[in-house]
Amino acid sequence: MERVVKDAAFLLPRQAILENFVHHNPWEMLEHLDFAAAEARVKATLAEASPAAKLHRALKSQSNLGFGGGGSVADPRGRANAAAAELCCAFLDRGQARWAPPGRDLGFLHFFAQLEDTGGSAWRTLARATAKRVLSAPPSRFGALAEGVLRENLEAMTGQAMPDGEAAAGQAVGGSGVGGGGTAPCGMTRALGATLWDMPGWAGMFQRMETHPLEQPPGAQVKLLDFCAVYTTLVRASMEALQKDACAAAPGPKGSPPAASLVVQPGHLQEAQGPPGAPSGSNVNELAAPAGTSLDGAAAPLRDEEAAHGGRGGEEEEEEEEEFHPSANAWTDQCLTERFRLEHEVEAAILTRVMKATNGPDNGLPVSAEAAAAAAAAGGKRPDMQVLTCIDDRECSFRRHLEQQQEGEEEEEGAGEAVVWVETFGVAGFFDFPIQYKGPGVAAPAGNTLAPEGAAPAHQVVEAPESGGGESGGQGYARRRRRLANWALGWERAASMPLPFGLLVHAFLLPLNLIYLSLLCWFPHWKRTCAEWLLDRPGSWLLGPAPPTRVKCPTLAPGEAADRLARTLQNIGLKGGGMAPIVLVMGHGARTVNNPYGSAYNCGACGGREGGPNARLFAQCANDPKVRSELAARHGIQVPDTTWFVGAYHDTASDLVDLFDLDRAPPHALEHLKKAKSAVASARQKSALERCGKFMLSPRFGPWAGCGLGAPRCLPCLPCGGGKRDLRAEALQYVETRSTDMAEARPELCHSTNAAVVVGRRALTKKAFLARRAFLPSYDPWGDDERGTHLERVLTPALVVCSGISLEYLYSGTDGGAGTKVAMNLVGYAGVMQGTFGDLLVGLPTQMTELHPPARALFLVDAPAPRVESVLARNKKLENLVRNGWVRLIVRDPATANFSRHEAGGQYTAVNPAGAAAIKKGAAGRVKLPAMKPRTPPPSEPVVAVGLGAGKGELGAQDKLPALKGGSSFDSPTAAAAAVPKALAASPATHAAELERQDGLVPFAPHLAHLLTRTRGETRAFLASLGLAVGLALCVPLLVQRAEGHHHADVYHALYGLYTFEGLSLAAEDAHGERGGGLGSVLTDSGLGLAAALGATWLTLCALGFSRRYLHGEFMFDRFVVLSALLLLGFNLVALAPVFSSSFLAGWNLVGFSSVFLIGAYNERPTVRDSAVYVHFVFQLSDACLVAATGFWAHGGGHGGRRLGVDGGGGDLAAGLVLLSALLKASQLPVPNLFARSMEGTSAGSALGDAALAAHVGVVLLARTAPIWYPRAWARFALLAASLLSWGAASLVAKVRADRKGALGYASVASVSVIYMLLALGAGAKGGVGQVVVACALWLSLAHAAARMTQMFRAQNLLLERGERAASLGGDEAALEHLAPRRDISPWVYRQAWRLNRFNSGLGLPLDRLAAGTPRRLRAALGMLCGCWCLSAAKTSKRGQWLATCGLLCLAAAPFTPLDAAREYLALELLTGSSLGLGLAMLFGWALLSTACVWVALTHVLDKERFKRKAAVKQKLAAVAPGKLA
Predict the structure, then answer these.
(1) What is the DSSP string of 218-245?
(2) SS3 string of 846-909?
(3) What is the DSSP letter of 928?
(4) Were 1302 and a residue from 329, 582, 836, 989 both cysteine, which residue would form a disulfide, CB within 3.0 to 4.6 Å?
(5) SS (HEC) of 292-306
């Protein structure tokens, strides 16, 4: 079985835990195959249906259930996946949950067994039987038992007996065909592989942790075999239960088989022999795969690369299967069908620019080794500074701006002679110094590995402050840092503590929290400035500036250091005589916040960490006299005494540059250091301004860009002030703020524009504008031997790292990757998932790939072809990457300057880059590049300015680029301008100049036009939502309150003018009318209602401000801002409208509808749809209870005409229904899982709804209706008991949840329970006590909402905060233990908490069963109603979707619709008459109808394919290039 598991898991993702995340080729296990064949093999493997999927398909095909005739049956994988994910979250938790789960040391199978009996779900009978078998076995047999359980499950699911002995081994070896070569895998291997791909994220994480023990949770035994045994048990249990249900529901005599077969044998369902001790059940023998469909066979017709991707032979079929990038910011060329065109256009652009840069006689490129040696011997003027950076594409622009330093400002001094001559080189970011680093910012006790993944450094580098025990020294700084960490940890624990103490902390710190929340959402620059002033200011008692530190590596001998220095210097051709006075060795990283993929932004060559310590060690060794002596003696490299190496760190997110150990610089280097600092400062500003060209909310697009949230110093909607704008300074401040902004989902673009790798001398690309799209490793071909010794050292990291980055971006950019960041949920410090249960996400989020053109990396190597072939022959991995087409390779002979393209079989064909842009197809459909001549730009060639004006500080002459003419669409500004929408053609000149800009490697002008169009649309929606929030949400409720208080007509009806029902008039005998029954309310009488409305309005404005940046580029942006304003309107109506008026009831209903569509925004996932429908059903029950309470309270009973609110039992009924309505809305018993199920939407939506408004609207209801329920002792006791039980259950569940949003959801439930208990103790007390209690409850609600919103906004920052706290506390074992979850929890207590968690997870609506149980004629009628017009319209246009959704919402009795008033009118008429039962039945039936309408809207009307952008992209392509998709 181990062999079967290994073969089945061959293609599983191998993604590391988040803190070790490094870019890699997702299909690196197939690099030994041809690129096209590997893709075909992956496609065929993933197309293999699992046994559960086949069963679902079989049941669906023989069913006539569902809308429009489609089958509507349960998918057995849904509940099995949810159950497995719940167990995996707890088992693989690395310390995120408050309580550590016991029993993980015996493996996942035992962990599953000890918790399985905590629930009683009927479908998990088989799982419970298996758990009993495991618990009865000794631990020594767990391995064999896992194999036995897996074998039984596979045999039951496939209907095949597991072969034994050599036959089994032979067939299992055939299973290696999943990834390797050979025969097709056996049926068991194929079935298990397909089953694992039903949950690839968790399965891949088990495999990863098993092979990387250091990533395993402490004390856990992680094995993929255990996961396979548990997961197949759950899947099998679900399948057997589903088959039993199908048998029971089948027509015919009892016990007879259904009409259609569900198994391979036609005609009946066979009985299965269960495992020993397990109950008998139905055999889940499945449809076998067609014979002869091996992966090799599936790949055979797709060997041809063009046929496999973008071939026109099956154009219509390909178009149906095409996947487009799901981000709204992506452009039309980000799909696989465009890949080959983009690859060849990139090739043409790169070669043309290299040709152009090296065409002149003064290009500085010697054509022979002798010429190179003569040039070196001639000496000449040395550069002022040389900079060694990582080869990273993000250093491309920084290096260019460093090299373009000129004297003074351009407009003042002109293009004078450069006084700061800078040379740059690119080397692997760890600088050939693999180290284990332990420093002040490191949380790991053993240190962080700063080396390529898989390396085992032999040396540890320790960075420590200089000696000094005072407050200004290292010890004082460490004490202050530890104190701050303890404060932050205490706040986090108090904020998460669902006890009255936690709420008191919230209440006490409410003013500070509101200030912080306002800065976080609206003023990120001020927030950063305040943090710097408080923490980094000299003399600050909070922290103060960090003291100077030193790095030490006592185990590194001078000889070894000299060898490592020599390898790097020889590779790049930097010899002693040519060294500058200052050599800057610059490592890089990216310090970002609220970014779970932070390690992916760091240096890949340093294992996803910062490369500053490596650069610092390199410089320290290079300055060491002993090392210099060894360098000269061993390698003949004489470093001049006047050369000083300076270690540095470049933050590619903020463009921060830190220079290390400047106090050690000798006197002769000080003047050169001053020039170096000036050059670096100028390059930072220019690089930041260039980067802002792709940040739509940056100041580059005006002070009001994106409603001004990019302006660094000002209020979002105010100008930056008078005077001339210094765009460079503003851009630098903007990127600095952007990297520290919690609301920024794109702190930088990372590698999203990478397209090429140029391995060679900088002279090849120095004069070319490559737009941060090229990795630039330096290599000197004349200093190498013919064997390619130096080339191998350069090419190995470049090929492995850069190809991995390119391919991961390619696949994530075309299949959606991990999806959007805005709905992610951090799980166990290991990964992320969408919502509160589901699979771990694999790949990159859309925010990292939305600007990436899908193209394989083009490698241009400046070396003779034989030398390159010699290197490839010695390294199998490099040979596989090149030979099999995972990258594209072109070599440039340094002697002849001729280009040759690598072809299949290791052959090279000459390429003339002058005509590479003209792409043609031959008769066979192959892409061919005709020969072209180099193009010399004419003197009259126009120049396109990159800058936006001529003011001081803006881009000058050296930032202007030639506008290339002719050739491909990459080079033609005219063609690009044709794609610009007319609305942008008339835009200001600043935008027009930006649109005309051509970066040379992708047609970014049309893409930029698309981005600007979307940004302007978002701005309009944002401004409209602000007006709606301030206007409708605050002014309308005040008008309603004022008008209804003066006996005016129903303002609710008058304002909207939709309908009038006689029975709904609010004109009454007294100020509140019959419905109010003479109610008085401390909220309205004391003005607390207005205070509650103002607090809710401010929280909503904060959420909108946060979302302007956080949701930028999301399809759901306009929907979110509008729904947020409507949610606020509903809350304020509840707070201000007269009790039980139509406005009051409409507000209560509006809160529910708005929350549901915020939850169901991303309805492409089934869990989102299921959770949204479940929440809507609960909210509809709450609404029905409130409408019924209105009827019972306001009017008399049917026969006596008495007012039940005064004389009869109607007051008790009204009080009970009001309490039930408030409990349901606030996720109290009997639905304590409501908030957790609501976490499927965006973090901003969850913060506003489930942490703020919807979570606390029940508090407002109870406060306003206190005169109804508080005088009744039983009501007070019932509220107190329900709240107490809810608090206890939610508190326990919150401590075992290992996902951030789920834990916050249950913590919110517990905190709201405490507020409810406070109201139960004194909300309606006399003598002013009640008013004080209500005021305290509202203050606690506002404090709790602000704190929870802050936590929700920062939900993805938890991993970074944990690392910072651990480092601040010392970074040792004691510090980690201080942060670790409690491990002394009794297993019995944990089991009870898990039992509650299981109950909450299983609480929901059985939608599939409800659909299956609906009578056929009713289903047909609903199908006719919703399918004939609505559904067809929804599939054809966005307008049709909106119209169909609006129709369904009207039918669902949404607020402010005629049916809402009709429902209210009919309910009141029935409840006030003699038909109380009929009235309640009508309300419950309407709740079901409303739920069905919302389910239809989310499942059938709102097209899930819009997230794949198929329709939108095709429309845009048709507009830009008619006939392109024809």
Answers:
(1) TT----HHHHHHHHHHHHHHHHHHHHHH
(2) HHHHCCCCCCCCEEEECCCHHHHHHHHHHCHHHHHHHHCCCCEEEEECCCCCCEEEECHHHCEE
(3) E
(4) 836
(5) CCCHHHHHHHHCCHH
Tens digit of each residue's pLDDT (9 = 90 or more) over 1246-1304: 999 999 999 999 999 999 999 999 999 999 999 999 999 999 999 999 999 999 999 99
DSSP calls for 1143-1206: HHHHHHHHHHHHHHHHHTTTTTSHHHHHHHHHHHHHHHHHHHHHHHHHHHHHSB-TTT--BTTT
Q: Which residue has the higher pLDDT, 926 or 1228?
A: 1228
pLDDT at 441 over 50: yes
420: left (phi over 0), alpha (psi -120 to 50) or beta: beta
- Helix, strand, coil % (nearest 5) of the chain? 55, 5, 35
Upper half-sphere CA count for residue 1391 (Cβ side, 13 Å): 13
As a whole number of angstroms, the longest Cα–Cα distance in the chain is: 116
Of residues 43 and 1001, the one with the higher pLDDT is 43
Given a cut of 80, whether residue 1474 has pLDDT beyond it is no
For strands 448-450 and 460-465, give the pairing: unpaired
Distance from C-alpha of 680 to C-alpha of 657, rounded to nearest angstrom: 8
- Is the peptide bond prior to 1230 cis by the omega test (within 30 degrees of 0)? yes
β pairing state of 644-651 and 582-589: parallel
How far is it, in rounded angstroms, from Cα 1248 to Cα 749? 28
- Residue of 1235, 1233, 1229 lying closest to 1286 (CA atoms): 1229
User: What one-character-per-residue DSSP string does 791-840 give?
Assistant: HHHHHHHHHHHHHHHHHHHHHHHHH-TTB-GGGEEEETTTEEEESSSSPP
- What are the Cα distances from residue 370, in Å, to 377, 787, 895? 10, 18, 11
For the segment 577-600, the average pLDDT, to the nearest whole number, is: 93
pLDDT band at 1003 (very low <50, low <70, confident <90, very high): low
CB 683 within 8 A of CB 691: no
H or E, element range at 647:
strand 644-651
* Residue, of 324 and 1081, whose pLDDT is higher: 324
Q: Which two tokens stand for residue 399?
A: 């290096």
Kindly report the length of the chain: 1526
Tokens of 596: 């779970």
* Exposed/middle/buried for residue 912 (C-beta within 10 Å: 0-12, 13-18, 19+): middle
Of 517, 501, 657, nearest to 585 by C-alpha is: 657
What is the tens place of the pLDDT at every residue in 245-268? 877 766 554 444 443 333 333 333
1204 class by beta-carbon count within 10 Å (0-12 exposed, 13-18 middle, 19+ buried): buried
Under DSSP, is residue 462 helix (H, G, I), strand (E, B) or coil? strand
Burial label for 317, CB within 10 Å (0-12, 13-18, 19+), is exposed
How far is residue 31's CA from residue 37's CA, in Å, rounded to a whole number? 10
Q: Which residues contact 1367 (CB under 8 A, 6 or more apart)?
A: 440, 441, 442, 443, 1375
Helix or strand holding residue 132 (H, E): helix 125-136
For residue 767, give both structure tokens: 């004069």
Tell me the CA distances in angstroms from 250 to 52, 256, 1063, 1155, 1416, one per residue in order: 20, 8, 49, 39, 14
CA 1269 and chain centroid, separation: 45
DSSP 626: H
The Cα-based distances of 696 to 590, 702, 800, 990, 1109 in angstroms read 20, 10, 33, 13, 10
pTM more than 0.85? yes
Of residues 1096 and 489, the one with the higher pLDDT is 1096
Question: In terms of DSSP H, where are the helices of 499-644?
Answer: 500-508, 510-522, 524-535, 558-572, 598-601, 612-623, 625-635
The answer to whether the beta carbons of residues 104 and 91 sit under 8 Å apart is yes
In terms of pLDDT, which residue wins out, 646 or 1518? Answer: 646
CA gap 377, 348 in Å, rounded: 36
Could you give the 3-state DSSP secondary structure of residue 610? Answer: coil
